[in-house]
Design goal:
Strands 2, 4, 5, 6, 9, 10 and 11 form a 7-stranded mixed sheet that branches. A hairpin with a 6-residue loop joins strand 5 and strand 6. The chain is globular and about 45 Å long. The chain has 127 residues and is mainly beta. The protein contains no helices and 11 strands.
Length: 127
């Protein structure tokens, strides 16, 4: 079956950096657009970043633009989220998601677009 496994979440101080990884299995990874979402306690899940199948298209939430970078390595079946200049408001469970699509360069920012989800990894940013 399809599995997405996130890793890399840690407790870090404000201003620090983290790199999250999402390893995919059970699917042809290059056929999926990928995304990162996050959910803080008491809040709805929100879009963070997305990347197209080809990696030529990316999109970011305004709250993270300029600080976070999404990338993918199709040879490793892995999508990454590099986070820098972390703020306490970045504290959340971060989820990766996979969207089966026939378009190579499209990105998707709605949670409803995605077919598969990981279990999440906790990122905590202290002040």
């Amino acid at each position: 079956q399809v599995q997405l496994v996130e890793s890399g979440g840690e407790l870090v101080q404000a201003g620090g950096s983290l790199r999250l990884s999402c390893a995919a299995s059970g699917l042809t990874f290059s056929r999926y657009a990928m995304g990162w979402f996050r959910q803080a306690p008491g809040k709805e899940r929100e879009f963070v970043a997305a990347i197209s199948r080809s990696a030529l298209g990316t999109s970011y939430a305004d709250s993270v633009k300029g600080r976070f970078t999404i990338s993918r390595d199709n040879a490793k079946n892995t999508v990454y989220l590099q986070m820098s200049s972390l703020k306490p408001e970045d504290t959340a469970v971060y989820y990766c998601a996979a969207d089966r699509t026939f378009t190579t360069d499209s990105v998707f920012i709605g949670a409803y677009d995605y077919n598969y989800w990981g279990q999440g990894t906790q990122v905590t940013v202290s002040s």
